[in-house]
Write a structure and sequence with these properties.
Layout lengths: L1 H14 L10 E6 L2 E7 L3 H6 L11 E11 L2 E2 L8 E6 L5 E7 L7 E2 L4 E8 L2 H4 L17 H4 L2
Parallel strand pairs: 2-3
Antiparallel strand pairs: 1-2, 3-8, 4-7, 5-6, 5-8
Length: about 150
């Protein structure tokens, strides 16, 4: 019994490390003809933390940031262990800009136009999927901000 408790205690402690992802809601989204599992960061805290403290992002994984309004957005890659593509979208789901963030970078990138959503994907994903400014992506209903969904 004691071995059992020690074994599961160690497994539990290993799961509490800095590299464990936060338990955010997820949705499925079609991006560039491929299916992605996308975490939804809706609260200000979850949006601030984003993908920090993680060691890995799968090829068909990402995170969407639905904001309550449409304006110029600013992102950085502080304490993110891998490089990212950030796809900025307007309230209707049209891509307004695509930016690259290097791992661990404090350099900020800005959307080229007002954006209501940002999607973080692994570096090179936007190019691999031939994403371009003006292209439309369907935002899943569960990832839409309530203010945007009311329009």
């Amino acid at each position: 019994m004691i071995r059992f408790l020690i074994y599961f205690g160690l497994i539990w402690l290993a799961g509490c490390g800095r590299t464990s992802p936060t338990a955010l809601p997820t949705t499925h989204m079609k991006i560039g003809g491929q299916d992605f599992s996308i975490e939804i960061a809706t609260s200000p805290h979850d949006q601030e933390v984003g993908l920090m403290h993680r060691d890995f992002l799968g090829a068909n994984q990402g995170m969407i940031f639905p904001f309550p309004d449409q304006k110029e957005r600013e992102f950085w890659n502080h304490d993110v262990h891998f490089s990212l593509d950030v796809v900025f979208l307007d309230a209707g789901g049209s891509i307004v800009s695509i930016k690259r963030l290097e791992a661990w970078s404090e350099r900020r990138v800005y959307s080229d136009a007002a954006a209501q959503y940002a999607i973080e994907l692994g570096q090179g994903t936007a190019q691999r999927l031939h994403l371009e400014v003006g292209q439309h992506l369907a935002i899943p209903p569960d990832a839409q901000h309530a203010d945007a969904a009311a329009r």
